[in-house]
Design brief:
Length: 316
Amino acid sequence: MTAPNLHDSPILAEAARWMERARNGSEEDRRAFRAWLRERPEHVAAMDLVERAWREAPRAAAGRGLRPRARLAEPAAARGAGRWRMAGPLLGAACAALAAVAAWTLTVHEQHLAAPADRMASFALADGSRVWLTPGSAVTMRATLLGRSVALDGEGTFDVKHERRPFAVTAGDVRVVDRGTLFSVARRAGQTAVILARGAIDIEDSRSGALIATPHPGQQVSLAGDTATIAAIDADAALAWRDGRLVVQDLPLAAVMARFSQLSGVPIALRDPAMGDLRVYGTYRLGDVAQFLDAVGALYPVAWRRTERGYEVFRR
């Protein structure tokens, strides 16, 4: 295999140039370096890798039987008094280590995970994060040393392991960039809903990268077309489905039945649309549709029966 070239990973090459400027440049250079780090999470991850390669350079040089010469001060006219440059063998070892890092960044670890159509599923991701998927939902995760990206089809809740590599979830035209967090993303019929339970996220346009919203924990962002709406929400209740529970807080029966069907994978049909306005509350086990319908029947003149496809609800 041909030895990798630093140009195979432009962001690493750029990080190496910035490190040189920050170490040997002016205070203005260092301010520019800090601004570059703030531009994108990938810049922080790349700099972390470059610094590690630089620290490994002496060991790499020793392993190759090289003895680095003493570090020499350069003439003040060339670089400025008190500034130093790494001697040849050590610099070569650092470049070799950095080239190896560049090769690693080109390695993509990919996972494809899907929940069955009739039940939820929970999976450990390759980076130590965890995802809970509603029935029929799926994710594809691609991870490199510079970042972690997830493509979501359906609805999932993510408990993200915090590290320097950014973690981003894309659902249609919405991208959620995580900072080490618990959040959920649901994409259905061209609309996206994002709930933040813990930590911090940025919600961006996946095409342009433009920032849409930066919600606080306990907020839901609903996105449809060019409109984004932020509202307070009980995140613990909204995400209780991860534990097999549906927590209902004064919602119309039609909405509750639709949500129960989504989370259980069992169709529930409402024969009389007028019944859909009945208000429902309580906590229900998602694995027991009959218990849920019996509870509704205890509140209202509602009955139900099993069908070949699922359940049917009608007025008593």
